[in-house]
Amino acid sequence: MNVAQRSACRGFTLLEVLVALAVTAIALGAGLRAAGVMTDNAQRLSDVIAAQWCAENQLTALRLARSFPGVGDADFSCEQLGRNYVGKLKIRPTLNPGFRRVDASVADEQGHVLLTLSTVLGRL
User: Fold this and answer.
1) Collapsed DSSP state (helix, strand, coil) of residue 41
2) Contacts of 116 (CB under 8 A, 6+ apart)
C-alpha cells in the first residue's frame, strides 16, 4: 500500500459518526426518562408514607379516646412533611354489635386517594 491508500483507510466516515451520535442520543434519552420515573416514584412514596402517618394518627386517636364510636363519616385534615392532606373516617357497624369497622382514607391536595387504612374497634 502506498501513502495515499493508507490515509484513505484511517478514521470514520460521516455515516458512521452520525449512527454513533444517534445511538448515544437514544441511550441518553432513555436514561433521562428512567431518572424522571425514579424521581416521580420517590415523590409518590414520600406522599404515601406521610398519608399513612395521618391515617394512623386518626385511628390511634380513636383508640385512645376509649369511647365506642358512633356510625357515620367524619372529615379530617393533617399536615405532614410540610404538605396538607385531607382525609375521611368511615365508621360502619359489623355483624357483631360490640365492634365497629373504621376506614381512614387520606387524599392529597388534588383529591387523589393515596391510602386507606382499616381497623376494628371494640366496645370497652
Assistant:
1) helix
2) 55, 103, 104, 105, 106
Q: Which of 92, 53, 88, 96 is nearest to 69 (CA)?
A: 92
Beta carbons within 8 Å of 120's beta carbon, 6+ residues apart:
94, 99, 100, 101, 102
What pLDDT score was predicted for residue 49? Answer: 94
Q: What is the CATH number of domain 3-122?
A: 3.30.1300.30
> Cell triple for residue 77?
385534615
Please list the pLDDT of the chain residue by residue as tens digits (124 residues): 555 555 556 788 888 889 999 999 999 988 888 888 888 888 889 999 999 999 999 999 999 998 899 999 999 999 998 899 999 999 999 999 999 999 999 998 888 999 999 999 998 7
Kindly list the domain boundaries of the chain, sorted by start residue.
Answer: 3-122
Across the chain, the runs of DSSP E, i.e. the strands, are 72-80, 83-93, 99-107, 113-122
Q: Where does residue 54 rank: exposed (0-12), middle (13-18), buried (19+ CB within 10 A)?
A: buried
CA distance 117 to 101: 11
